[in-house]
Amino acid sequence: MKIIIAGAGAMGSRFGLMLHQAGNEVVLIDGWQEHIDLIKEHGLRANFNGEEIAEKIVIYHQNELETLNFSADLVILFTKAMQLDAMMQSIKSMVGDQTKVLCLLNGIGHEDVIKQYVPLSNILLGNTMWTAGLEGPGKAKLFGNGTIDLQNLGTEGKSSANEVIEVLNEAKLNARYSDNILSSIYKKACVNGTMNGLCTILDSNMASFGETSVADAIVESIVAEFAQVAAYEKAELNVPEVLAQIKTCYNRETIGLHHPSMYQDLIINNRLTEIDYINGAIVRKGREYGIETPYCQFLTQLVHGKEEILGAK
């Protein structure tokens, strides 16, 4: 399958690498020039479950696609939420009538942007519990296992997603169809809405945060706000199950020593975060629905304050 990975950061690198290794024709697209240059020079390098590897994968800057003759069967979106519209504009010449677009961005509401470029029948909305990190430009750190849940937004449903699921599973990405992806997205948003912002503000990995005496109380308060908004949108959210999922992030023997993507963006790479599309989205929806969201609002403000202090770009 001819696949575009739109956003070749940590997660895009993981998916691009695994799909490339499974024999697909993969093109990476990103906007970070140093990252692009090093991948072109050395290949995509990765610490892949303790093994150092490098794979030659084609990569382009999103602003140099005008002359690229590549018609994608599948686009997987991993760009930052605030960059989604610009990325869709950049790749639109490579998105045909039959191209499926799988959105795996963190946060809520991205389909509103994608449907301006792609019919609902070709949009696959999903979430993934895979993890990944960048040790620097051109070098990924990939460890552990994960899953993907996805749903077709058109009337064809599962039949329109089967080929994509098959390709993902051939790459050992553990994809499965969901009839209620909004619940899965809210469940993951709860993980991101706690681990990302809190570890970023506290300058901590997930295990160290989870071992604090205040972790449970803070997490429960944030998840309660997500659950109220999800209920208003008729998304089923099992709060005890969500809290149990979050607590698995604290395990030092699995992913607890991992720094979440928001920490990597802001603290390591001095980049603006996606807080407005995670906790900030809950604040906006809460205002619309008449739901109080003080914890999400405060955390959103703290992260924006941190961005300003660090001069993030």
From TrEMBL:
Signal peptide: none annotated. Its EC number is 1.1.1.169. Transmembrane segments: none annotated. InterPro entries: 6-PGluconate_DH-like_C_sf, 6PGD_dom2, ApbA, Ketopantoate_reductase, KPA_reductase, KPR_N, NAD(P)-bd_dom_sf. NCBIfam families: apbA_panE, PRK06522.1-2. Belongs to the ketopantoate reductase family. Catalyzes the NADPH-dependent reduction of ketopantoate into pantoic acid. This is 2-dehydropantoate 2-reductase.
